[in-house]
Amino acid sequence: STMMACPEPQATVEKAFMAALEATKIYRIEDGQLAWLNAEGREIATFKPLEPAALTDVTWRATVYNNGRGAAVSLIDGSEITATFSTDGVLRGSAGCNRYHAAYVVEGASITIQAPASTRMACSEPEGVMQQEQEYLNALPTAANYAIQGDRLELRTAEGALDASFQTGDD
CA spacing 20 to 30 A to 72: which of 5, 31, 81, 137? Predict the structure, then answer.
C-alpha cells in the first residue's frame, strides 16, 4: 500500500481492511459474495459486487476528457462538465460554460453520439474554460464504445483512445 495518511474514518477502515487481508488464508465465493477466511476457517470479511450505475438518467460528472491533441487531461480547477443520457436518446449536460445536447444511440457496448449543439454564452472564468469546452464537445462524436464499472463511465474511440471519463454525481 502507499504511505499516504488518510483522514478519519478512512484511516480506521483502511487499517481494519489491511489487517483482514493479512489474516486471510482462504476465500470462498457463495451466493454471489466473496468471503475471506482466517486459518481457523472463520469468516473475517465479506464483499458483494458493486452494482454498476445505469447509463441513463444518471448525472455523470467528467473527471478526464480528450483534448484532441492525443492526451486525456483533467478538468480545469473550478470547472464542471456533466452528461445525462436520457432514455429518449438525447445526451444533455453542461460543457463547463454552456449547456449542450446531442442525439445518441446505444447498441450493446457501442455508442454513437451526434455532434452536439450548445448555447452560446462566453465565460472568462475559470481561465481556459472555453477551450476546454470546445475540446470536450469535439471529443463526444468520436466515441464508439462505452463501459460502466461501478460508479465510473468511460467513453472510448473505436481505436480504444479515451474520449472522456466520468463518475456518477450521485455520491
Answer: 5
Residue length, the chain? 171
What are 41-97's pLDDT values in tens digits? 999 999 988 766 789 989 999 999 999 998 999 999 999 999 999 999 999 999 999
Burial of 123-160, coded b for 16+ CB within 10 Å and e otherwise, reads eeeeeebbebbbbbbbbbebbbebebeebebbbbeeee
Q: For 59, phi and psi rounded to 5 degrees? A: -85, 115
**For the purposes of burial, counting CB atoms within 10 Å of the CB of 95, is it exposed (0-12), middle (13-18) or buried (19 or more)?**
buried
**Could you tell me which residues come within 8 angstroms of residue 2 by beta carbon, excluding any fewer than 6 positions away?**
none
**Closest to 153 measured CA to CA, from 135, 134, 170:** 170
Tell me the pLDDT of the chain averaged across its residues.
92
